[in-house]
Structures are given as structure tokens and as C-alpha cells.
Amino acid sequence: MRELHGPGRQGRRKVSLSVLLWALIVHALSAEGSLGFHLRTMSGIAISDAAAHERRQGLGWSFFQALFACILKPLACKKDHPESFYKGLRLLGIDGSQWSLRNTEALNALPRQRLRTSESKSSAAFLKWGFCVLVELGVHQPLAAACAELEGPREEGELTIARRLLGDIPRDEDVLLLMDRYYGRGSFLEEIQATAGTRAQWLVRVPEPHKAKLLAELPDGSALVEVRVCYPQSQRLKAVLRLREVRGEVWRENGKKMKPAQRSAVRLWTTLLDAKAHPAKELLALYAQRWEQELFFRELKRHTGREQLLRSGTVQGVQAEFGAMILAASLLAQQRLQAAKQVDLPPLRLSLTKISRALEVLMPMLRAAEGIISAAQRRRIIARHLKLIAYEARIPPRRSRSCQRGLRKPASAWPRISTRCDLAGDWVYAVS
With contact defined as beta carbons under 8 Å apart, do 112 and 100 qualify? Predict the structure, then answer.
């Protein structure tokens, strides 16, 4: 793989590729220390910071894509992780976010993204770099990742990046994709059906302006609709999608102080056409699990990158840094899954911060102990460490506040303190 995706041979290398990858992962997990420091720690070889960055420059994005295809696999099983499945369908999510890049000479030469406000037309403080990730919900395991072309003639949109992930959707099992309203358009949904195969179902939120032809009303309050898809920039018909539309409202059970405007209206499209097997109210409640995608991005930026500003200063450097973060996120998901078995809790009930800090200490120590301890001793150390992590990383259930804080709104020269509503009750889903 190194010969296919890396630079040509340039003499004997001090550090092997496997050690370099482990150093990149440790660097992604660590808030402090340079890449050279972590490479020296993991290899035990004297290598300068400049040489370490030069080695990272040789790992192009094509190398990480090939590596993702080999090692990023689903982790959840139906018996032990029911929160990752819906009636036999593995829950997946697709969404995108952005990194901020440093103001270096190499990156400042790239086209800069403009602020999308009508009041200001000045350049943004940092260059924005978009990316999308395919995530297994319930365990937060990344399955694939794609990023924007930094050196391209124009900035790529989120949908363009997300299309590169459609081929990575598992085709050997039944899956259900959860997506937000940005992906709720007929052209993208038609591409999912054409690329991901017949075993991939989806549930997506749809903006109100999108039109659909009503075919039939179903007993559970949903409806069968028909969506016409045309070719780009043309009125010529490309495909007709037969979907099921669910409309409803979501609010808290304790609604004494809630105004009607606090109820959220939801409009969903899905390929799950059987209303008896998949009732509309169940789908409304299931869509709330899509928020785990946003939680994954928060974990990616807090527990691996530790900030929204990448540390690299070149195009190849930021791609390699992002690729190492995806590998680190996968490692954290695996270790959290193993630790959750020790305390018989769902994986998301364990603190990823404490697991990340523990791995940051454990990995260099195990590397330094190579040749001193046996393989059996190494496994025993890892098992005992995971047991300690699982005990300390438990997150207690969230309790409602006995005294709600005041809410300062609106933010102006004369702010008004308004009382927050007590939203401690259960969520209510009503099909409209």
C-alpha cells in the first residue's frame, strides 16, 4: 500500500510506516507536543521535527482512503448493541462539517471562502475546509470519510463531498441512513438508490418547499407520495421516486409553560413503505437519533483535534492530519466498546475524554515496553487498563435542574432576563 500511494523510494527510512501511523494517532489524541516528539516517543529513534513533517507529507489522501477501506468496519452487533439497529437495519448517518486552517504561506495561496453574510464581504479569518463522514450510530464508529479538494479551481459543496461516500455504504447487509434536511432533495436521494443498492434504506428530513405528489393516505397518518427527479439544470425527467412521507410535531411532555411556537414541525421522507411494520410515530422518534452524528463531530474536534483549527500548515499536512483523526476516532470507538462490556453499559454512557487520556498514556508506554514484556503480559496490561477505564469513565444519567438558570435574551444593550421552561419531561411525538 505504501508503494502504491506514497512517494518513490528515497533511500533507507529511519521509521517504518506502521510506527509513523501510530505516531500520527498519538499526535491526534494529544493536546500538546509536536509530531516529531510523538514520533521519537513511539519509535525510540532520534528524528527531527522537520523530518517528521516531511514523512507525513508523503502520505497522500489516496493512501488514507485505501487504508479506511481496509480497517474501518462496523462494530455493533444486534445482540449486544440494540441501540445501533432498528428492526434489523443497521443505523448509519451521513453529514458534513468544516475545519479551520492556519494562515500559512502555502494555505493562504489557496482560494479563500467568503463570509456568507449580506453585511460584510470581507474574507473569513481562516480558510474553511469541508469534509463528510459516514458514521455508525450508537457506537460512533466512522466507516468512511471524504474531504474537499483544496487545490481545485472552486470550493466544493457538502453534497459534492457526500456523494463520494455513497459507494462506501455496506452492500452486504440491510442499513438505514439518517440524514438532515440538507440532504432531503430528490436528486441526492436518487443517487443513493442507484449507488448503494437495494439493501440501503433511508430516513431524511425534508424542507417544506420541496414538492411531492400525494398518492394515498395511510392509516397511521403518513402518506405515499411520488417525487419527480430531473436532470441537473434541465426539466427532462430522470427518475420517479415512490416514497412515504411522515409529518408530525415534537415537544416535551411537561408543556404547561410551553408556547405553541416551541413545538417543532417535522417532515420526513423514507423508503420504508410498510406502515404496519414501521409506524409513523416510531419513525418520528427514530429520527432523533440522527443527532448522534453531531455528537460524533463534537468528539472528533474535542477529543482528537482538540480544537477547530488544524495544526498543519500545508495541503498534504492537513489531509494527513484529518486522516489520522479518523483513525484515532475509530480506535476510541473500539476501546469504548470494549470498556462498555466491562461495566455492562451502552458505549455512549462512557466518557470519551477519559478513554482518550488513558490511551494517550498507555500507547507510548506499551511501545517502550516492546522486547521487555511478553505478548501475554501485554494483553493482560491492556485488559486491566480497560477495566480501570470503564469504572472511571461511567457517566451517570443526566438529572433535571432543581433551579433553572435565567436566560438572557435578546443579547442587546438592555437585555431581558426570561425564565427558562422546565423541560424535564419525556419527548412526545404526534403525527399530523
Answer: no
**Which residue from 60, 54, 23 is spatially nearest to 38, judged by alpha carbons?**
23
Domain ranges for the chain: 1-59, 71-112+124-298
The three three-digit cell numbers of residue 329, written as one number:
476516532
pLDDT of residue 122 exceeding 70: no
Other beta carbons within 10 Å of 210:
13
* Alpha helices for 61-134 (secondary structure H): 61-71, 105-108
Each residue's pLDDT tens digit, 309-361:
888 888 888 999 999 999 999 999 999 998 888 888 888 888 888 888 888 88
Neighbours of 208 (CB within 10 A): 9
Minimum mean pLDDT among 126-135, 223-232, 401-410: which range?
Answer: 401-410
> Residue 95: which H helix or E strand, with range?
strand 89-101
Partnered with residue 245 across adjacent β-strands are 223, 269
Where do we find the cell 481562516?
126
Q: What b/e readout covers 401-414, taking b as 16+ CB neighbours within 10 angstroms? A: eeeeeeeeeeeeee
Distance of CA 121 to the CA centre of its chain: 31
